[in-house]
Specification:
Rossmann fold, six-stranded parallel sheet, 38% helix, 19% strand, binds adenosine-5'-diphosphate
Length: 478
Amino acid sequence: MNLLFVASECAPFVKTGGLADVIGAVPKALASEGADVRVLIPAYPALAELIANGKTVAEFGDLFGGPARIAAVEAEGLQMLLLDAPHLYDRPGSIYLGPNGQDWPDNDVRFAALSYAGAQIATEGIEGWTPDVVNAHDWQAGLVPAYLRQQGGRTPPVVMTIHNIAFQGLFDATRLAALGLQAELFTPHGIEYFGKIGFLKAGLALSEKITTVSPTYAAELLTPEFGMGLDGLLRGRQADLIGILNGIDLDAWDPGTDDALVANYSARSLKAKAKNKAEIEARFGLTPGDGPLFCVVSRLTSQKGLDMLLECLPGLVGHGGRLALLGSGEPELERAFIDASNRYAGAVGTIIGYDEEMSHLLQGGSDAILIPSRFEPCGLTQLYGLRYGTLPVVARTGGLADTVIDANEAALLAHCATGVQFAPVTATMLGHAIARTCALFAQPKVWAAMMRRAMRHPVGWDLSAAAYLDVYKSALER
Ligand code: ADP
């Protein structure tokens, strides 16, 4: 089966979050099932080296205001198609935000162009290769089925994948012509979302099938609380919506070989983790202690619930715990965690920034990873935590609910616990979960058994890749 992925980021080339990890990993898993997958992403400056090695396979005289081309290149086991459009993507800084921290003002055009190019490849192919199915990811690729509708004729089916419904790509209706969209599509059954142009809305309304990244999130999306205004549409398309759990790249995330660790280890050599812990303590200015070392690796936004963690710090420290936090995002949260590391010097350490290596080290040396998200489509850091024996302490929502087995009495007796869950998602219950974690940590045998069990828990892509293939097949049957 030939598959075209359209997305705005792809690890290891360009990453701002979990989307990139998934786009970098699923194609490899699908390829091992026999699929031929090409991944279309914009050619941001970070990809300069990759572009230089690319072969031009398509050209656009004028793609929304300037010339563009598609360069094909194989790298890191992926067949990449890079949309090289300097007037849209050749800019310093973040791929989504300008220097003022706001969205680039032309983000509508930037990602309409990505979708348009995807639709073009879908119908015309590239050097004799045409996709059987297009998998569009998140709002940035949401217009793919809209442009396919406009092109008419025989077009491949589109599967739309929701990685996070909080980001919907809403733009003013006056932009319709600038985006090359026909007025006929601007209806509630098409691309209109309450008077605006909705990129994700378009993808959900016009695609053949819809997937999201965990079964629990798929169910949550049908409710007003989690559906963020699109729950009605999704309830209408319930038969076409399926939740497929994310996996992780087992090569990139392997405590036995990870270069970012001071000491590699496996379930049989857990003691070596202590060397990584000592390195974290040194880098985060923490005093060694007997209690558990918690870590956080996260965007600092209200989704991630870390404001609740701030409320729980007295309890965490009071129970002998320590915290190393790596993150960046909302300035207020950044400041609050820096303040906390001054107030609880030696017990709380904060590094503001985005640091891939440090994120690996934190997984390699911490005892537990805290993920108190208010909503979490899948979440990846708890999966890395499982694989690294860094027990996840998670809110019972979305993919967190689907991947961590809470250490309640029944699970402990049945020897299947792999972490700690809490619900409802409040500061009080998070505080309780932290206290429970500290109590479990004080029982070294119980804790070590949980670590080993967590490390055995399957977190790869095998099952999910097969599930994606089933969705593509059912999309083809439509
Ligand atoms: P989301 O996509 O909502 O940000 P996920 O848990 O799905 O959340 O994925 C987050 C990814 O980004 C993980 O790979 C995590 O390790 C990484 N990450 C998040 N914040 C940082 C950071 N400050 N430094 C390094 N990696 C980070």
